[in-house]
Amino acid sequence: MTAFGRHETRTMTDLGCEAVTGALEDAGVAPRDVQAAYCGSAMAALVHGETGLGQSVLMELGVRGIPVVNVENACATGATALHLAWRDVAWGIHDVVLAFGVDKAVMPKGTVLKAGTTQFEAQLGDIFPGTFALIARRHMESYGTTPAQLARVSVKNHDNGMLNPLAQFNKPVSLETVLASPMIAEPLTLLSCCPNSDGAAAAIVCSKEWLSRSDNDALRIAASVLVSGDYEPLRDMTCWDSEKRCVNQAYEDAGLGVEDLDVIEVHDAFTISEIIHCETLGLCAPGDGGALIESGATSLGGSIVVNPSGGLLARGHPPGASGLAQIHELAAQLRCMAGRRQITGARVGLAQIMGGNKANDAQACAVHILVNDVTY
Amino acid sequence: MTAFGRHETRTMTDLGCEAVTGALEDAGVAPRDVQAAYCGSAMAALVHGETGLGQSVLMELGVRGIPVVNVENACATGATALHLAWRDVAWGIHDVVLAFGVDKAVMPKGTVLKAGTTQFEAQLGDIFPGTFALIARRHMESYGTTPAQLARVSVKNHDNGMLNPLAQFNKPVSLETVLASPMIAEPLTLLSCCPNSDGAAAAIVCSKEWLSRSDNDALRIAASVLVSGDYEPLRDMTCWDSEKRCVNQAYEDAGLGVEDLDVIEVHDAFTISEIIHCETLGLCAPGDGGALIESGATSLGGSIVVNPSGGLLARGHPPGASGLAQIHELAAQLRCMAGRRQITGARVGLAQIMGGNKANDAQACAVHILVNDVTY
């Protein structure tokens, strides 16, 4: 992945090229070996009027003639690209497939991101921060979750971001700073919301047969699940049924459970999101997510680290790339290359992401489980 | 498919619902039977700021929880959605997959469509009409193709469009009218260029096993090929190597040749396009496309009908839907449901489409071959 943050002077093509080149080099794959490619961007057309971004990047790198598909699934865009690449390989369609995601999401101050929201909802303030503020209020009401518990997610993820050279933010924030930062939508303050970021990330998926011909340090994709929302109007606002289905399917496909996980990356677009995702993954009972973060169990050095990369809150969030940036973190952790944020002996990792907002459900939720079968 | 044309008062979601509902009904498939879906739109985000269109449509129709992917590949967007649906079924991933495409492409007069073109190229006038005018000039220079031959493509396709109740244009145009219509980019006049249109189209792809449990009047997809461009800077401008590769692969996959085709839909975004595609498909030798159209061989009643639907020139062109509108026409023809434009005994059909413009090559080219194995 590229560094995440603000890349004012660089084009999306340029960012994509850096990420794809890095993935090809890391995997020991030549441009001519790539048999298909999926490029994700949530903002290319929406904000920058750019289409065919996948081909623009691959043309520069000499990856030509192959099937290339540009995909969009809001914040789950990068994970969707990976899911399609994984499917091509898992079902024997191709041996080597590229997935990458690119976005330039830093926008002029005051821009309202209406993605997945109708104009009418936008006028009501029911855009992402408003929606997640309602969810947070409901969680507080139902389970006694406190503003301090919410804020602690941001503190932890900023602490982690300091150890990640590619993260957008590399300064610690105190509980007081998070709570005292400008109120965006009560109870969510500025530092309780992830930033919009520029950046790109990429991954190569290859078959076992291809791998056996190389000496590459690869990971096994034990599960790759993509679902769309259930859109149940009367559902419990403090969790997503679609995410539950997605997570349970992933555990089943991998033959693994929450107790097997060594490292987790979740979609902490807002502090409340991480708390709910921890509950849905089974790290604690529903409603206990606030106590979980407070206990320190999900901090570096805790029993199950969540978002060691800094998550969306500190690593940053170019929506088309975030799903693959999570994979970048899992790959770093499971291959023992995560430097000062390394989780000792991490062997199994899970990445969860969701995107869009339709009838207050996600348009897409994706879960990937990665395993390192080699013992270091 | 919906009627193509101008749908000022309808949303893209509404148009998508009409097309998907029609496809489900035609296929005898219930919303709960659909296992995955691909939604194509080239304009949703670019022009309308809308994302997650696939989920917006499917939420309305009660198709929930399944993997849904929004795809973009310029004018090849609809064909890309179909290709992915076909792949899911061909490789046994799913039994029933939905592909649909939606666009609202009618734009205020004077809007410059920059899709696939950098700002610099747009400033030079090297947008689609400019690019295809250069290609037409080169074809005229190399092969003696005449303005009248080019114009005849438009006359033929407008004649066909009159017989298609869903076509955007239903008036005949004379050779003189085409030649005398306003010059857009010499030698291409207004009536030599396809319109931008609003509309949607959809298709259901199912496995042989699924089909055996229904009494549905289905067609076999004998080939589905998607490639990206070769981007050769010094190539012959009068054809596309990427299209040649795509066509040849499709013939090989289907075990069929040009002599087996009964009906063809090609991407006649401009009159010159149809002439070149006819050459590349092997209907005539390179350079003889002008003589071919003049001979009447590709008109209704001719030896091999091209664009009986009216093509992009008369049926209209919502880029996300056009690839699937071609399939709608092949399905109508091969199932003997094409009314006054029916080609007697049509059994094998081919659809070709290409999209985008990168280094003067297409970003994507797709060819589908459909066969009716039942004799009426």
TrEMBL record, chains A, B:
Q: Which GO terms describe its molecular function?
A: acetyl-CoA C-acyltransferase activity; lipid binding
**PROSITE patterns found in the cross-reference section:** THIOLASE_2
Q: Keywords in UniProt for this one? A: Lipid transport, Lipid-binding, Transferase, Transport
Keyword rRNA-binding, does the record have it? no
Q: Which InterPro entries match?
A: Thiolase (IPR002155), Thiolase-like (IPR016039), Thiolase_C_2 (IPR055140), Thiolase_CS (IPR020613), Thiolase_N (IPR020616)
* Sequence ranges assigned to domain Thiolase N-terminal in this UniProt record: 1-208
Q: What class of enzyme is it?
A: transferase
Q: What is its EC number?
A: 2.3.1.176
Q: Which residues form the Thiolase C-terminal domain?
A: 235-360
A GO BP annotation? lipid transport
Q: What is this protein called?
A: propanoyl-CoA C-acyltransferase
Species source reads Flavimaribacter sediminis
